[in-house]
Predict the 3D structure of the following.
Amino acid sequence: MRRLAWLACLVTLAASVPQPGYAQNLILTESEISAALSHGPWPPPGKNDPSNRMSGNSAAISLGRKLFFSSKLSADGTLSCASCHQPDNGFTDGLPQAMGHARGDRNTQSLFNQKHQRWFGWDGRNDNLWAQSLRPIVRSDEMALPVADLGTALSGTNFSDPYSRLFGPAHSHTKEQNLVNVGKLLAAYVETLETGKTPFDRFRDALESGDMVSAATYPEAAQRGFRIFAGKGKCNFCHTGPLFSNGEFHDAGVPYFVTADRVDEGRHGGIKSLMRSPFTLDGPYSDDLNKTGAWKTRQLVRSHNNFGTFRVPGLRNVELTAPYMHNGSLATLEDVVHHYSSIDLERLHADGELILQPLGLTESESGDLTTFLQSLTETEN
Amino acid sequence: MRLLPVILLALFAAQAQARDLPLFDAHIHYSHDAVIKVPPEQAAKILREAGVRSALVSSSDDDGTQKLLAAAPEIVVPALRPYRRRGEIGSWMHDPTVIGYVEDRLERFKYKALGEFHAYGDDIETPVLQRMIALAKQHDLLLHAHSDADAVERIFKSWPEARVLWAHSGFDNPDKVRATLRKHKNLWSDLAFRSDQASGGKVDPQWLAAFEEFPGRFMIGTDTFAPERWYYIKDHAEYSRAWLSSLPTGLAENIGYRNAEKMLGLMK
């Protein structure tokens, strides 16, 4: 009720009160303000991952951070997680496709806000963060560490003592259990990587609290951009909620050939991988006896429209994570806006992604939408 | 106990048969961009490796179909799509220049079907659609219609002797599909780009009832609507064989290839 009262107040102000200073700068309608409120508050409440007993454990977070930056987890000692997930680069690498021991097929995703995700990776091949964290260590095109060498990497190093205190000595575990343990340590650290408040959050919070002076400092161009985002662009159909993502998989009309005779199967391949994986919420390595959340994986059904679909990325700190799309094929945010403005419907099934239509944005509208997207990146003030 | 080896042998034989079931893929497109991205010899190789022994192929423009027919004449059953580019699917029924394009192709090449075309409800009453129906009658062509049930009814009203392959079975539920099949003996249903008929290799009970009521009317199809989906043909074939293997052999063979061959007069 309190929110509704404020909304009514805001609408009145926005629509009719030409007061000096701020009212003329608030251009959103009642429904647009309601849409803006749905993208917060930020951050949403978080809780520890019950499938990972290291989640929220300060000693595990500390060791996980050390492992994240250590090159001992790679085959030749030259790569760490941070080689691709660079903190100064939005925890991405700035490359179209990741470059580990070999060039990957996909763009490196940011590690921000992972604790709020449902599926992990562009294809959702994991249903939990610790499984997603252990994969790059052993994948041949990423860090390529033979799993049998993991015990050695953990022993006789400054990881040995804290690891033993948390799990017992590495040599007392199977190689697969050590891999899972390292995944859980890395996940404990990655869970702490949460984006801060953005200009949009401050605007949204001001709207909710009725702080009209603060709300009016949000640029009009960004407000016009949000109007497109939540209006004719229908971007918020998939980029929903505080994360600006519904966490699911869609065909955004981006080609998915990898080479002349190979395509990226996207979610189709992700489900196949997930169904084979021992590292799921329903599997033997979960620490959660209640198997919380495992239902989502049990209920998975492959369908033909999974082929060539990719997870909707969140948009927080989006300005820091170029290039964009699953294969890094769009260099800038302006390119992304242009893609949706002139999307090639010929690539989409007539009964597929019905939400997508070429937006036909003017240059000014494209600029406004880009300005709004830029306002989703955290700033100190 | 002496029967056990016989039973095991029979089971093994049934599984091997299911794995090797030849398929007629009744919903393949090979459009202008696919021709570039998946050249004809590569496309033919994909079909052969997937065990697709026949395929109803159409393309936007028709050049792709002709090129694939040349590369795989033993597989390709050509259909003429009334589009010069895929992007015409929502506008073609209002574009009279389509008629000249289709008439020209029909004069120059042989086809077994007209389609797959998109038309809903009273789209069928437009002069372009009515001319398409007249051309199908003149050239004895099957109509491959991506349509709702209303449009299917209107096609049969326009030409009661029409033979219609209902693409995706209109994305309708099995009861609606059955009801429409009951009304028209010359209507067949393709199951392309829908996944509700089977999951985990098991057939949905409602669909099973439809297949049992109309064992001679259903067929499978991949729908290669974008070039990349050519690389889904093999997966789709495996998916199809998996759920077909849960059906009685005769019914599985019908849906797998025999119904399409009968529909098109191609019994091998």
